[in-house]
Amino acid sequence: MKLFTHHQDSHKVNAVLTDRCAGCQECLVRCPTNAIGFNEDSWIVEINSELCVGCGQCERLCPFSAIVIEKELSILESQLNRHYESSGSVFLSVRETKPSIKTFDAALFEASRCLECPDPTCVKGCPAHNNIPLALKNLRSGDITGARTIFEETSHIGSICSRVCDQKSQCEGACSLALAGGGAVSIGALEKFIFDNSRGEIAEMVGTSKKVAIIGSGPAALGACYRLVEAGVTVEVFEEKEYLGGLLNYGIPDFTLPAETLEKVIEELSSAGVYFHTNHHVSDEELEDLRSHFDSVIVAIGANIPIRPKVDGIESTETMDAMDFLVRYGQSIREATVDYELYGKKLLIVGAGNTAMDVARVAKRLGAAAVSVEWVNAKFAKVRPDELEEAVAEGVDVRFQTTLIATSGRVATLVNTTHEDPSKLPSIIESSSYSEEFDLIVMALGYRKGGDIKVVEPIYTLGETPSPKWSASGILSKNHNRNQVIGSASWMRERKTRAIAGIEDQSLFAVGDFLYGPATVVEAMASGRNAADRIIATI
Amino acid sequence: MSSLIDSTSSIPYGDDHGDNGPKENPKLRIDPVAVSINLRPRQTAAAKAHFAATTPKFEVTKFKVVSTLAKKRWIQFALIVPNQLIFWLVIFSGLFGTIDPGLNFATAITWYIWFAIVFVLMVVVGRAWCSMCPFGGFGEWIQRKTFFQRTQKTLGLGHKYPQKLAAYGLISSAVSFIVLTFIEEFFNIAGPGTPADTAFMVLGIVLFATASFLIFERRTFCRYLCPLSGLIGSIGAIGAAAGFRTKDRDVCYSCESKACMRGGEEGYGCPWYTWPGSAESNSLCGLCTECYKACPSGNVGLFVQPPLTSVIAPSRKRMDIAVVSAMLLGLVVFQQVNALNIYASLDNFLNAHTPFGHYPNVLDYVGLIALFALVPAAVFKVGALAFSNIATKADKDLPFLERHSGFRNFFMVGMYGMVPTVGADYFARQLPKFFSHATRVVPAVIHPFGGTNKFLYNYSILGAHGIITVQLIIMAIGVAASGYATYKIARREIASNNRNGATLYLVSATLIMGIAIALLYIPMQAAN
Description:
The complex is a heterodimer. Helix content of chain A is 33%, strand content 16%. Chain A is of the alpha/beta class.
């Protein structure tokens, strides 16, 4: 089932630049709708505008920019309302806030918007390279389990990724429809639908005597675990905290990622034979010990050294780190306990990234007022747009181009900034300072890698020149203003997740945030999988 | 598996390192990006027949010294630098040197030597000049922000050449050649006039080229805007250099990277928008070696071909090249007539009676060029009316290069056939300056900024009679080549129920027009 509308735009034409088309047929082999034919007399391609849906993939990938697509995108708009209702009072639910696809028909409609591109750019946008078009094709044919199996070939934690990924800058941002300026297929929502409505299975194990220890139990560790277990490797996980899941557990509140989602994943791995040690801190000395007992050790302890701002008088003010805050109060939300500690208080959250939004939204749910300040321009903010939208809808006061410069007891001095160039730091407008009283200041400026385990520096396995497969899909094309960012960001992620630090005898690997600093859940997962792949390659 | 610390170590999957990875291990995950790609089949079944006649046989890059040099990133830089130095010297000596045009380095080198060399290169090789051109080279250095290295980021706006103009191919370039020639005639720059005028002209071209390189992507300037592009692109087809071509077309079609078009590790994507995989003429190969460097499978080579191959063999004749040939024919015949007394009378009359009061009068300049260009068009139109079996008219909805009609069929066959005549005419037209004054380069070189040494100043290599003889010999060769080319093309491509009659008509027409043009050299009396 394909759903097209046909516009009658007589003045808008698709054209092949006959002077420049070299007849290489890169466009013809990639056209999702078979709208490109070949003229053997003049040895150039021709566009059948009746079949063209205006996705513009050919225009983006033509090596000589010899195609012009002016036809408007003629794929039906998505019918999923993914916008958080922001009018009127908002019920601050402690359950998952993001709406799910409720019916199979709705999922089918959304999946039918997928053009099934022969060279899908969404796959390149996804750091795990899930075969999205094939999964959606299975879904369209009614085979939800089959769709899940396709996802699981590259990622077992689709239930998590679909909830926490920034799809707009990943798969959905790289979707042909988005690159053409339209609304992307709601890949995240469909992935969630598929994983929530099917059961996972770890592929049959193949016996091997190999033993691997993984330090940490966050997304990078889970990515490696699945891959190793599938290959029949014996895996033991060492987690220093009481709970498993690392940042997935304590860093992401339940209203974004419900606890049971993570629990299911852990259960799946446990029943496949992974042994989890909790409350087990691995020191430098013990690491050496582990290396002698295991064939390989993967260090996936994340990046959790908080970044501290330079603020006058901060020592004498009550402050809290965002992670500590989320561990402490996220617990109240998860267990739905009555917690009046923050009730009626006013919080200042320094930073407006995803963690800051989580802090603010937890605070709102516990009856506090939350002000989040971020010194960069909103245009360049790193926060997920949907997360920011939801937080603002819930009443969080987000102030961009504002920062904290001094505190004195409960009084915080805030100041505005100017920030027009994303490549430069914002500059403070001294005259704009104002004071405001707060009961608690939470630091959510991000984290850096560090800690007591030292591992060799990362090695990039890819050079500067993008892979031919990426160039040929048009994702890196600069012809189109939207995809410049998506394509190059995807390529940078690719370079990062393919880089694995390790030592020659494969006894030690460093992966995920621990290796390259804070990134996303899916990148950490992909990095873990890639390390596991290296280990498996030696079996 | 090799060292993991080694940045070139194999990884279990990947585009870049897949060949040395242990692929046989079934537990290995294969590259998920590759798995998701399901391309439609290409349509290349007809490729062999389509390109058969144009595929050159003799590869120059099979010689180690040529291939080694062509792989060097600095090779084009090395070709450009001497010319670059000469033209900056032209600018400086033109502006600050002696005002005696006969002794000034700028005028001497530009008008007595350079033009002659460009025409020889053009007729013998093709776009040889383009590979060493200082104007394009200068713009390209700035655009790429490097003299010769492979960089990933370019400077400038990177616009495409406007689609409406690009649809007419090389015609923009022919227009800019006619405009430049008008400017040159108007200020009598090539006369030669004052050396400063020559310097301003060269500087103007440098600025125009550099601005174009900053506005448009790749060598848009060289292909579409350079005054010489249309000339070299059409007449250069006589030349023996086939340019960089594919060794095995199937490898090109199945190539995943198309690095010769998009750019690869070692080379830029073709700055001229020519794909070795489908090139069938030397017309748009700038001999810059980038595709040769970029090709990941060593499937590109530099080839030579018998002269006239690129005129006769291509199965896809380009209407823009036919039109450009007619325009350039109009221009060169105008320049011949321009040397006759009858022209001076006409120009003086028009200057006295029209708002344009300066030689050359715009009306006779444009009018005569158009008239001389329309003569072959009219001749071929008559041929089409008499012999063509194509009943349909050109479909205006189709792109300019894709329209078909009886007239177009005859015009393209005829004008491609006329290319050797036009080439010979430009060459012959340039000879008087060379034979009369080329030796002036010696005193000019001795004193680049002007001196009084008149050693060899008044020496002529050939006298007027000698020059006319050489001109007529060259024209005879050109006209004969035109007759041959027209015959070969018409036999294959003319759409007529009376193929013999049509061929006879076209060959006779090209020969008669060619002889008429050649005979103009006698009354011209070896005029500059």
